[in-house]
Design a protein that fits this description.
Elements lengths: L13 H12 L6 E8 L9 E2 L3 H9 L5 H9 L5 H8 L6 E4 L5 E2 L6 E6 H6 L1 H24 L5 E3 L7 H14 L4 E2 L2 H7 L9 H5 L4 H11 L6 E2 L5 H18 L7 E4 L4 H14 L6 E4 L5 H9 L6 E4 L1 H4 L9 E9 L5 E3 L16 E7 L5 E8 L6 H6 L1 E5 L3 E6 L2 E5 L1
Length: 418
Amino acid sequence: MSATLKHPALLTDLYQLTMLGGHFALGRKSRRAVFEYFFRKLPPHAGYAIFAGLEDLLAALEHLRFHDDELDYLRSLGLFPPEFLAFLKDFRFHGDVWAAPEGSAVFPYVPLVRVDAALPEAQLVETLLLNVLNYQTLIATKAARLVEAAEGEPVIEFGLRRAQGPDGGLCGSRAAFIGGCESTSNVAAGMRWGIPVRGTHAHAWVMSFPSEREAFRAYAKVYPRAPLLLVDTYDTLRSGLPNAIAVFKDMRAAGWEGRAAIRLDSGDLARLSIEAHRMLEAAGFPDPLIVASNDLDEELVADLKRQGAKINCWGIGTKLITGGDTPALGGVYKLAAFETEAGAMRDAMKLSGNPEKTTDPGIKVPLRFLDAQGRLAGDVLFTANESLPESAARVLSPDRQFSGRKLAFAGGRRGNRC
């Protein structure tokens, strides 16, 4: 389930509950409905998004129920009759969820999740679904862009201290890993999801010793296998690096055969990394590990690469865990079809004076096509009862149904996958 969310039923907007109450009162609690989740716009300068959050969503749906204290709270609002609260006591999500595989590259207007359930169930989960998927997809997308900018060099996520609360920190670490980050500083995320954890010491460690060299020596003594020394507490080139090199030399004289490793957290990172690399190699430490941090994003990473920086590992915090220049992904959850009183399914379409908010009617099946070289050619939407045109099959090779992962629930438990 979501990192800190033990009781997801009340993680919703009040109007979801008032609509649920309305469906119950009007005898529509068993009426079928199909909703689709998609987004309309990519984050700025992004040509794709990375879908994330699905497993957290499914776990939350499995645990979706109203506990006694939650029912007591709803009763205190004076909005809902006793018979509706009794219905909520036994409420479980029994619907089917079709979704793109987590970690997929995805694009605007393509349905990424389809929820097929009784109308009250499908409506209630809207806020929960949007909360989980929008944030994690945003962070996974940001991580993928950072990894792309790093050109194959490892990216470490360490944004926990700047995240939007504990749940954002945990889910953000998970999403960043899905997006391609090599590891995280977040120990709780490491334990929960098996993400590799990385870290070194802070400036406070150095400042707590009489001298910088004593601080480095003490840290290397405690963690002799692979000490990573933060060298910019006082003066990177005149103090930090000479002291780090002295400690590495002492360790080597004692039989250590590890790789010299430093972190830069301030200043002109291109110039400092180039000079640090030169000094370390001149001291007999080839191919040093040089980790850089300091409010980086993909634009700065790409710029440092263009400047010839000798950085070979990137620590990204604030601009990753918060989404940087994009505070939210505008994913939406819209009704695609519903069951009429006569029992037939009717397509639904939202009309708007704003054309981009008008939805395509009916249940849609996205198919992903690859070109002859196996590269993505595009996603095409078909209606659920439509066959793939033969002409398209001749021109392009259909990969598979993008929504071909079905996760069904029965009795509140996750069912089979296909």
